[in-house]
Design a protein that fits this description.
Layout lengths: L8 H39 L7 H18 L3 H23 L3 H12 L3
Helix pairs in contact: 1-3, 1-4, 2-3
């Protein structure tokens, strides 16, 4: 039996995709914000000769993500892989900034100024 009152699947799909696009925008904003905080951390580490690589902190971040995955029914492996990417990028950015790469520092400053 065909329900004439059912929403058009294409309209519903477009609505859901728009909702997903909105969430993706927030996710990307959060990644940008995370990198801006990492730049501030790199500055602090450079000023106080703190090593970029902090294995205990990396472990803490992974454990927090695993606990979140467990509590919310998400894949622990997926969140581990996601945070591995985020941590790798954090270390790459910190290395550039701690080593005094002025173009990298300016790019991050520009990103922070272009928040919208």
């Amino acid at each position: 039996m065909n329900d004439n009152h059912a929403p058009d699947p294409e309209v519903e799909l477009a609505r859901l995709r728009a909702e997903l696009d909105h969430v993706d925008g927030r996710l990307l904003d959060d990644v940008r914000d995370r990198l801006n905080i990492i730049a501030r951390i790199a500055d602090l580490k450079q000023r106080h000769a703190i090593p970029v690589l902090q294995p205990a902190r990396m472990q803490q971040v992974h454990e927090r993500a695993a606990n979140y995955a467990h509590r919310h029914g998400l894949s622990i492996e997926f969140l581990h892989d996601l945070y591995a990417l985020l941590i790798d990028e954090a270390c790459r950015v910190e290395d550039l900034l701690v080593d005094g790469d002025p173009p990298a520092r300016q790019r991050l400053a520009d990103v922070g100024e272009n928040r919208s």
